[in-house]
Automatic annotation (TrEMBL):
InterPro entries, sorted: GmrSD_N
Stretches assigned to the GmrSD restriction endonucleases N-terminal domain: 18-246
Organism: Leadbettera azotonutricia (strain ATCC BAA-888 / DSM 13862 / ZAS-9)
Lineage top rank: taxon: Bacteria
Name of the protein: GmrSD restriction endonucleases N-terminal domain-containing protein
């Protein structure tokens, strides 16, 4: 603390304070807001008031209180304002402008400048950004002659400054500097006609503009105090708070590594302070979503993801770090997230990604399907931290690890192999819990080979059976690809790439290795080191099945085939449906667990492999739809399919009921085999056999009944099941024939729907009896029922129609 000339509370001018102390705006303060473009009304009002005071040329026009601490830094007395930053900055700029205008810059420098290491330093500076501090130093050390400016009102001070040779383009991204330039332009508009006003402003005998100075050393400079007292200021962003503490933390680490800034050798903390406000900031500035967007949230997203990924490599990961509220600086300190290695890695990756004033630097020379460096960087910095996105984070982590481990010596082809493998592994690994994510992060370093070692060789040599961290089926696929790509015959590269880059397969093509018998060979030998003659045969097989696969699947999934012939062709070979909870699905192009890709993966059903093998052996790529039709017709003739599959094979319109949802059925519900519109029995659904009958015979005439109708339900009530039904009115009494399916047979129920006391004319009873109906009493109500097989149901209904037609 500075005791000399200590001031507790008094009326002072800006000049009196800066003659006695350096004025340093602390890290905890926000950027200079009064000069923002959006603050034009407040800025003009304040400058009008200052002009009014100077015009009046009378003493003691107070600008309210200025609070702050007095301390000592490098043996220099320093005043650190807690409240008053905006007014002090504006007064600093006003003194500079009037001194320049009145040719009093020499006098100004005597009060405003000191020398450190033979370099002029401004006694007024900002600690929030290194660039702000450097701008203040430079502004006071450079000569600007505005007296020779033509048409002063139309020209701007900011234009003169930014066009000067000493102005750095990186300063364009510093909001404090930009606000200062805006303020200088506004000061120029208000004071360009003022003459000898610097003398008035600096007159010690007539202190025109003053403020009440209050020293708060007894309170201490704390975050809480700042928040309470600086009520009219905009709160610091999350990143500004975090960065301020991180910079102080890095200095305390006392890391010995050294870096170079414009031929100057500096320690880690100096390098970080400089780069975070210049070159690294430029990178994020180039990736703003819009011109009006700030970049602090982008920087914070980037930091958070790198911090979590770094901490994931250690034991006892604190899950609170996955939450937005858990990523405070204190939490990061508590859980040892910010060790020296993290700081060095952070610096390394930012240095490798920065690209001047342009978007992120790229290392893969041409467009690469599996990893777009620009797109992934945008995904990461715009990602909501506590939401989804594990896959993107893992892939980006792997990218960063490669760049860091190679220390700038990047082999584009090796990087492409690495990113293709990691991207495929992450994309096809299920991340249901944080633990799944942590395992993958730790697996990345296990998979990354040492510098100079081929990635393909490294991947192919890892023991897949014991490997944890990514999906084991996908890992096996990547190992097979690695083995094939290592073969001398480069045809494998083109063949694999052609089908891998098909948008629907999207890197997952293990089923083709299965169909081509490559997977079987690999499982037996742990390699693909077959003879050149065998290689030709394997490549031919792979090519044939690839063409067939592309004939069935386009970029969006299964192609549209008439009458759902693809599904029917699968059903004649077996039950290919995949289970999800209590339901089974006929599969969709999307949806992870019930997609066609999951079916091709063969990890959800023991039936999948045999069905896939059978159908792909028979289909013909040249005329795919016709070959599917022939498969269905041939199998219908040669095999006697009598279970539920026959309904779909012979009545493909059943599929249309499923198209609006996840194509779910429930084979064993209380109401039998049902087709669901949604996921649950509480939603609309129909019963398979009765709905199939309805679709098939809905156009038929069943006189004296009306046309066949269907009753779908939205509950699992056994007493009110989904059913087909026929209606008949005789002698003003309404009768209904319900057609249900229970215990693998049709149940026909004939009921009086009108009378409270169910009575039936004898001729009706006789007709029912002739068709093998019998009386059934249900809760006191009389009805008539019969059970018949699938082959007998329509004949029974027709016979009943004949009997009742005679009566009517």
């Amino acid at each position: 603390m500075c005791e000399t000339g200590k001031l507790s509370e008094s009326r002072l001018t800006f000049l009196k304070v800066i003659r006695k102390y350096d004025i340093v705006i602390p890290i905890i303060q926000r950027d200079y807001a009064q000069g923002r473009v959006s603050e034009v009304e407040k800025r003009d009002a304040f400058l009008d008031k200052l002009r009014e005071y100077l015009d009046a040329d009378t003493a003691n026009h107070d600008l309210d209180f200025v609070y702050g601490n007095l301390t000592t830094v490098n043996k220099r007395p320093v005043f650190i304002p807690l409240d008053g930053q905006q007014r002090l900055t504006t007064l600093f700029l006003l003194h500079w402008y009037l001194a320049i205008k009145d040719c009093k810059i020499k006098e100004l420098r005597e009060d405003f400048v000191y020398t450190e290491s033979d370099k002029p330093k401004s006694k007024f500076s900002y600690e929030t950004r290194t660039s702000s501090r450097e701008f203040c130093d430079t502004l006071l050390s450079k000569d600007i002659d505005i007296s020779k400016m033509n048409n002063l009102k139309s020209k701007t001070i900011s234009n003169i400054i930014t066009k000067s040779s000493w102005y750095f383009s990186t300063w364009d991204t510093d909001p404090t500097i930009q606000s200062m330039l805006n303020m200088l332009d506004s000061i120029h508009l208000k004071f360009n006609d003022a003459v000898n006003y610097y003398k008035r402003l600096a007159d010690p005998n007539k202190e025109i503009i003053t403020f009440q100075f209050l020293e708060l050393n007894d309170y201490g400079l704390t975050d809480d105090l700042y928040i309470k007292m600086n009520a009219r200021g905009k709160p610091l962003t999350e990143f500004e708070n975090f960065k301020a503490k991180l910079e102080q933390y890095i200095e305390k680490l006392n890391l010995s590594d050294r870096y170079t800034i414009v031929n100057e050798d500096v320690l880690v903390h100096k390098y970080f302070d400089k780069m975070i406000d210049t070159d690294w900031t430029n990178l994020f500035w180039a990736h703003r979503p819009s011109e009006n967007s700030d970049i602090d949230h982008l920087l914070m997203n980037f930091l958070k993801i790198l911090i979590v990924n770094h901490r994931a490599e250690k034991d006892n990961f604190p899950k609170s770090l996955f939450q937005e509220s858990g990523m405070s600086f204190s939490q990061c300190e508590k859980y040892s997230c910010l060790d020296g290695q993290f700081i060095l890695d952070l610096i390394a990756i930012l240095d490798m990604l920065k690209n001047g004033n342009k978007t992120v630097k790229t290392y893969i020379p041409q467009a690469f399907y599996f990893y777009d460096e620009l797109e992934y960087f945008d995904r990461i910095i715009n990602n909501k931290f506590d939401g989804a996105g594990y896959e993107n984070r893992i892939v980006f982590f792997a990218y960063c690890q490669y760049l860091i481990s190679r220390k700038g010596n990047i082999d584009p082809n090796e990087l492409k192999h690495w990113m293709r493998i990691i991207r495929n592994l992450a994309k096809y690994t299920n991340y249901n819990r944080e633990e799944d994510y942590l395992r993958s992060i730790n697996a990345v370093k296990q998979l990354l080979p040492a510098k100079g070692t081929s990635i393909l060789i490294h991947i192919s040599n890892i023991s897949g059976k014991d490997f944890l961290g990514f999906d084991n089926v996908q890992f096996l696929e990547e190992q097979i690809k690695a083995c094939l790509l290592l073969r001398e015959n480069n045809d494998w590269k083109k063949q694999i790439q052609d089908v891998e880059e098909q948008k629907y397969f999207d890197g997952q093509i293990g089923f083709l290795f299965f169909l081509s018998d490559i997977e079987s060979y690999y499982n037996k030998n742990n390699n693909c080191k077959w003879s050149a003659e065998d290689d030709k045969e394997y490549r031919e097989k792979f090519s044939i099945y690839s063409k067939k696969a592309k004939a069935v699947f386009d970029d969006n999934g299964v192609r549209e085939f008439a009458n759902h012939v693809w599904e029917c062709a699968l059903l004649v070979h077996g039950d290919y449906l995949l289970e999800r909870s209590s339901n089974q699905s006929f599969l969709r192009n999307i949806q992870r667990d019930i997609s066609w890709k999951r079916f091709l993966k063969r990890d959800r059903s023991n039936m999948s492999s045999g069905i896939i093998k059978s159908i792909f052996e028979k289909i013909k790529a040249e005329n795919i739809e016709q070959s599917l039709i022939e498969i269905v017709e041939l199998e219908k003739k040669e095999s006697a399919i009598t279970d539920w599959r026959s309904q779909f094979i012979n009545q493909s319109d059943l599929f249309n009921y499923l198209e609006s949802a996840d194509r779910y059925v429930r084979k064993n519900s209380k109401q039998g085999f049902v087709l669901l519109k949604g996921e649950r029995m509480s939603g609309n659904h129909v019963e398979l056999y009765t709905y199939s009958l309805f679709l098939k015979y809905g156009e038929n005439s069943f006189k004296p009944f009306s046309n066949l109708k269907y009753y779908e339900v939205a509950s699992d009530d056994v007493s009110d099941p989904p059913r087909a039904y026929l209606e008949w009115v005789c002698n003003t009494i309404a009768y209904q024939l319900d057609i249900c399916f229970v215990d693998n047979q049709y149940l026909l129920l004939f009921t009086d729907k009108t009378s409270i006391k169910k009575t039936y004319l004898q001729p009706i009873v006789d007709g029912l009896m002739q068709c093998n109906f019998r009386e059934d009493i249900n809760n006191g109500d009389i009805r008539y029922k019969t059970e018949v097989s699938s082959s007998e149901v329509i004949a029974t209904i027709n016979n009943l129609c004949v009997s009742l037609t005679r009566i009517s």
